[in-house]
Protein backbone atom coordinates (compact mmCIF):
# COMPACT_ATOMS: atom_id res chain seq x y z
CA UNK A 1 0.00 0.00 0.00
CA UNK A 2 1.51 3.29 -1.02
CA UNK A 3 0.52 6.84 -1.82
CA UNK A 4 1.66 9.44 -4.27
CA UNK A 5 2.22 12.36 -1.92
CA UNK A 6 1.59 14.95 -4.65
CA UNK A 7 -2.02 13.94 -5.22
CA UNK A 8 -4.87 15.36 -3.26
CA UNK A 9 -6.93 13.45 -0.72
CA UNK A 10 -9.61 11.44 -2.53
CA UNK A 11 -12.77 11.27 -0.43
CA UNK A 12 -15.82 9.21 -1.32
CA UNK A 13 -19.38 9.62 -0.10
CA UNK A 14 -21.05 6.36 -1.12
CA UNK A 15 -24.63 6.22 0.05
CA UNK A 16 -28.20 7.09 -0.79
CA UNK A 17 -28.68 10.80 -1.38
CA UNK A 18 -31.19 11.49 1.39
CA UNK A 19 -31.32 13.76 4.46
CA UNK A 20 -30.54 10.80 6.78
CA UNK A 21 -27.16 10.25 5.11
CA UNK A 22 -26.31 13.95 5.60
CA UNK A 23 -24.47 14.84 2.38
CA UNK A 24 -25.30 18.54 2.79
CA UNK A 25 -23.44 18.53 6.12
CA UNK A 26 -20.38 16.96 4.48
CA UNK A 27 -20.40 19.49 1.64
CA UNK A 28 -20.57 22.41 4.09
CA UNK A 29 -17.67 20.95 6.10
CA UNK A 30 -15.54 20.28 3.01
CA UNK A 31 -16.23 23.76 1.61
CA UNK A 32 -14.22 25.16 4.55
CA UNK A 33 -11.15 22.94 3.93
CA UNK A 34 -8.09 24.75 2.57
CA UNK A 35 -6.18 21.65 1.35
CA UNK A 36 -6.71 20.11 -2.08
CA UNK A 37 -9.54 17.59 -1.91
CA UNK A 38 -11.36 15.45 -4.44
CA UNK A 39 -14.90 14.66 -3.29
CA UNK A 40 -16.66 11.84 -5.11
CA UNK A 41 -20.40 11.59 -4.54
CA UNK A 42 -21.79 8.18 -5.45
CA UNK A 43 -25.27 6.87 -4.85
CA UNK A 44 -28.88 6.97 -5.93
CA UNK A 45 -30.57 10.37 -5.79
CA UNK A 46 -33.37 9.09 -3.57
CA UNK A 47 -34.72 12.50 -2.53
CA UNK A 48 -34.59 14.91 -5.49
CA UNK A 49 -35.52 18.00 -3.44
CA UNK A 50 -32.68 17.21 -1.04
CA UNK A 51 -30.32 16.58 -3.97
CA UNK A 52 -31.15 20.08 -5.31
CA UNK A 53 -30.17 21.50 -1.91
CA UNK A 54 -26.85 19.62 -2.10
CA UNK A 55 -26.20 20.80 -5.67
CA UNK A 56 -26.76 24.40 -4.55
CA UNK A 57 -24.14 23.92 -1.82
CA UNK A 58 -21.74 22.42 -4.38
CA UNK A 59 -21.94 25.66 -6.39
CA UNK A 60 -20.18 27.35 -3.45
CA UNK A 61 -17.30 24.88 -3.45
CA UNK A 62 -13.89 26.63 -3.62
CA UNK A 63 -11.34 25.90 -6.37
CA UNK A 64 -9.22 23.63 -4.15
CA UNK A 65 -12.13 21.16 -3.98
CA UNK A 66 -12.76 19.03 -7.04
CA UNK A 67 -16.21 17.42 -7.04
CA UNK A 68 -17.09 14.34 -9.08
CA UNK A 69 -20.71 13.23 -9.12
CA UNK A 70 -21.34 9.62 -10.03
CA UNK A 71 -24.28 7.30 -10.12
CA UNK A 72 -25.45 4.45 -7.94
CA UNK A 73 -22.89 1.69 -7.41
CA UNK A 74 -24.09 -1.87 -7.87
CA UNK A 75 -23.74 -3.97 -4.68
CA UNK A 76 -21.18 -6.29 -6.28
CA UNK A 77 -18.99 -3.27 -7.18
CA UNK A 78 -19.02 -1.48 -3.79
CA UNK A 79 -15.74 -2.90 -2.46
CA UNK A 80 -13.99 -2.41 -5.81
CA UNK A 81 -15.21 1.19 -5.77
CA UNK A 82 -14.00 1.87 -2.23
CA UNK A 83 -10.50 0.71 -3.22
CA UNK A 84 -10.12 3.82 -5.41
CA UNK A 85 -10.30 6.26 -2.50
CA UNK A 86 -8.23 7.43 0.48
CA UNK A 87 -11.15 8.06 2.83
CA UNK A 88 -14.84 7.19 3.10
CA UNK A 89 -16.72 10.12 4.68
CA UNK A 90 -20.01 8.98 6.24
CA UNK A 91 -21.68 11.73 8.31
CA UNK A 92 -24.90 9.75 8.73
CA UNK A 93 -27.57 10.94 11.14
CA UNK A 94 -28.19 7.35 12.21
CA UNK A 95 -27.69 3.72 11.22
CA UNK A 96 -28.90 0.39 12.57
CA UNK A 97 -25.68 -1.17 11.29
CA UNK A 98 -24.22 0.53 8.21
CA UNK A 99 -23.16 -2.27 5.87
CA UNK A 100 -20.95 0.10 3.89
CA UNK A 101 -18.72 0.47 6.95
CA UNK A 102 -17.26 -3.08 6.95
CA UNK A 103 -17.23 -3.03 3.14
CA UNK A 104 -14.98 0.03 3.18
CA UNK A 105 -12.72 -1.39 5.89
CA UNK A 106 -12.41 -4.75 4.12
CA UNK A 107 -10.51 -3.16 1.24
CA UNK A 108 -8.40 -0.87 3.41
CA UNK A 109 -10.33 2.36 2.97
CA UNK A 110 -10.39 4.26 6.27
CA UNK A 111 -13.60 5.92 7.44
CA UNK A 112 -14.50 9.29 8.87
CA UNK A 113 -17.75 8.39 10.63
CA UNK A 114 -20.42 10.20 12.62
CA UNK A 115 -21.03 9.11 16.19
CA UNK A 116 -24.65 8.25 15.32
CA UNK A 117 -24.03 4.56 14.57
CA UNK A 118 -23.53 1.38 16.62
CA UNK A 119 -19.85 1.66 15.61
CA UNK A 120 -19.34 4.59 18.01
CA UNK A 121 -17.24 2.45 20.40
CA UNK A 122 -14.61 1.37 17.85
CA UNK A 123 -10.99 2.17 18.65
CA UNK A 124 -8.96 1.82 15.44
CA UNK A 125 -6.79 4.08 13.31
CA UNK A 126 -8.93 2.87 10.40
CA UNK A 127 -12.07 4.54 11.75
CA UNK A 128 -12.27 8.07 13.10
CA UNK A 129 -15.59 8.68 14.84
CA UNK A 130 -16.58 12.27 15.58
CA UNK A 131 -19.74 14.15 16.52
CA UNK A 132 -21.80 15.87 13.85
CA UNK A 133 -20.19 19.26 14.23
CA UNK A 134 -19.18 20.93 10.95
CA UNK A 135 -16.06 22.57 12.37
CA UNK A 136 -14.87 19.25 13.80
CA UNK A 137 -15.40 17.58 10.43
CA UNK A 138 -13.60 20.38 8.59
CA UNK A 139 -10.66 20.13 10.98
CA UNK A 140 -10.55 16.33 10.69
CA UNK A 141 -10.68 16.37 6.87
CA UNK A 142 -7.90 18.96 6.86
CA UNK A 143 -5.83 16.64 9.07
CA UNK A 144 -6.48 13.66 6.78
CA UNK A 145 -5.42 15.76 3.78
CA UNK A 146 -2.10 16.64 5.39
CA UNK A 147 -1.15 13.15 6.63
CA UNK A 148 2.23 11.84 5.58
CA UNK A 149 2.47 8.90 3.21
CA UNK A 150 3.53 6.68 6.12
CA UNK A 151 0.56 7.75 8.26
CA UNK A 152 -1.91 7.17 5.42
CA UNK A 153 -0.44 3.72 4.90
CA UNK A 154 -0.71 2.99 8.62
CA UNK A 155 -4.41 3.94 8.59
CA UNK A 156 -5.12 1.81 5.52
CA UNK A 157 -3.43 -1.15 7.23
CA UNK A 158 -5.42 -0.49 10.42
CA UNK A 159 -8.61 -0.63 8.34
CA UNK A 160 -7.65 -4.04 6.98
CA UNK A 161 -6.70 -5.33 10.44
CA UNK A 162 -10.01 -4.20 11.91
CA UNK A 163 -11.94 -5.73 8.99
CA UNK A 164 -10.16 -9.04 9.64
CA UNK A 165 -11.11 -8.81 13.32
CA UNK A 166 -14.77 -8.25 12.33
CA UNK A 167 -14.60 -11.32 10.09
CA UNK A 168 -13.18 -13.43 12.91
CA UNK A 169 -15.89 -12.24 15.30
CA UNK A 170 -18.54 -13.11 12.71
CA UNK A 171 -17.11 -16.63 12.31
CA UNK A 172 -17.25 -17.17 16.08
CA UNK A 173 -20.89 -15.99 16.11
CA UNK A 174 -21.76 -18.40 13.29
CA UNK A 175 -20.15 -21.31 15.15
CA UNK A 176 -21.92 -20.44 18.41
CA UNK A 177 -25.28 -20.11 16.65
CA UNK A 178 -24.78 -23.45 14.94
CA UNK A 179 -23.89 -25.09 18.27
CA UNK A 180 -27.00 -23.59 19.88
CA UNK A 181 -29.19 -24.80 17.01
CA UNK A 182 -27.71 -28.30 17.22
CA UNK A 183 -28.21 -28.38 21.01
CA UNK A 184 -31.85 -27.24 20.70
CA UNK A 185 -32.43 -29.81 17.96
CA UNK A 186 -31.00 -32.59 20.13
CA UNK A 187 -33.37 -31.62 22.96
CA UNK A 188 -36.35 -32.14 20.66
CA UNK A 189 -35.40 -35.76 19.88
SSE inventory with pairings:
Elements lengths: L8 E6 L8 H8 L6 E6 L5 H11 L6 E5 L8 H5 L4 E4 L9 H7 L4 E4 L12 E4 L3 H12 L3 H40 L1
Parallel strand pairs: 1-2, 1-4, 2-3, 4-5, 5-6
Helix pairs in contact: 1-2, 1-5, 4-6
Describe the structure in your own words.
The protein has 189 residues and is of the alpha/beta class. 44% of the residues lie in helices and 15% in strands. The chain has helices at 23-30, 48-58, 78-82, 100-106, 134-145, 149-188, and strands at 9-14, 37-42, 65-69, 87-90, 111-114, 127-130. The protein has a 6-stranded parallel sheet with strand order 3-2-1-4-5-6, with helices on both faces. Strand 2, helix 2 (48-58) and strand 3 form a beta-alpha-beta unit. Helix 1 (23-30) packs parallel to helix 2. The radius of gyration is 18 Å and the shape is globular. The protein starts with 8 loop residues before the first strand and ends with a helix.
Descriptors:
single chain; 189 residues; alpha/beta; 6 helices; 44% helix; globular; disordered N terminus
Give the strand tally: 6
Q: What would you call the quaternary organization?
A: single chain
Give the helix proportion (percent range). 40-55%
Strand order of the largest sheet: 3-2-1-4-5-6
Shape: globular
> What is the radius of gyration computed over CA atoms, rounded to a whole number of angstroms?
18 Å
* Elements, N to C (H/E): EHEHEHEHEEHH
Q: Helix/strand-derived class?
A: alpha/beta
Compute the separation of the termini in Å: 54 Å
Largest sheet: 6 strands, parallel
Mean pLDDT: 88
- What are the low-pLDDT stretches, counting only 5+ consecutive residues below 50? 1-6
Number of helices: 6
Strand content: 15-25%
